[in-house]
Design a protein that fits this description.
three-stranded antiparallel beta sheet; alpha+beta; about 230 residues
Length: about 230
């Protein structure tokens, strides 16, 4: 009796499982995209204070002093926006023997005026490390570009759909599924500088960073499927 009951239950659920896997007839997958090279208009620079000391209190005081100097210096550059960064500390060991505490704090500088930001970077690198510099497309500009590319990607998708419909001698098509994604891939400019102990060397290196704007590839892609109808 048990075996027959089990078979009956399986037979009841099997059609439901098979029905779930059945796809409508005439489905065609289509991929369309539109892209452009956009000129970057916003520069970001990440600068950091790094120090070591056996006393964590002395370490924090040293880092805070340099960071306060950096923030005060940045106030003179009204075209540059300053954003707070991370503060981290960790213990350093030499052959399992505690050596010192090492701390680091970063801030991010942002501006559409690359000349002003370059001058500020040149001043800050007297006492701070320049971790990276990159150009990006601003959110305002990127929004307008993505809107245009989305319109073009939809046109490209419909052109492919019409071409396929005619090629298979169908009268029309309906969209079965659609997914639209956007992304932009900036080409970053990385700039790093090792710490130097000589004051004269730091003074000599305090010249405006030689930076050039680059481009960022902005792309809108549509992945979807259509169902051909006679």
């Amino acid at each position: 009796m048990y075996k027959w009951t089990l078979l009956l239950v399986l037979s009841l659920f099997a059609p439901l499982g098979f029905a779930h896997e059945v796809q409508p007839e005439g489905l065609v997958n289509i991929q369309a995209f539109a892209s452009t090279e956009a000129q970057t208009d916003t520069m970001h620079a990440v600068v950091a204070v790094e120090a070591e000391n056996r006393d964590p209190a002395v370490l924090a005081k040293s880092i805070n002093k340099k960071m306060a100097w950096a923030l005060e210096t940045a106030k003179s550059f009204s075209a540059v926006k300053v954003k707070g960064g991370q503060y981290t500390t960790h213990q350093m060991y030499n052959k399992r023997i505690f050596k010192a505490w090492r701390g680091s704090q970063t801030i991010t500088l942002e501006s559409k005026n690359s000349t002003e930001l370059g001058k500020l970077v040149a001043v800050l690198q007297k006492k701070l490390l320049i971790k990276s510099i990159r150009y990006e497309v601003s959110k305002e500009k990127l929004g307008g570009i993505k809107k245009q590319l989305t319109q073009q990607a939809i046109i490209n998708f419909n052109e492919q759909a019409n071409l396929i419909t005619e090629g298979f001698n169908k009268n029309k098509y309906v969209i079965h599924q659609i997914n639209i994604s956007t992304n932009n891939q900036p080409r970053p400019i990385h700039y790093s500088k090792a710490r130097v102990s000589s004051t004269s060397m730091m003074a000599e290196s305090a010249s405006p960073a030689n930076l050039r704007q680059n481009t960022s590839t902005v792309r809108v892609q549509i992945n979807g499927s259509i169902r051909l109808i006679k």
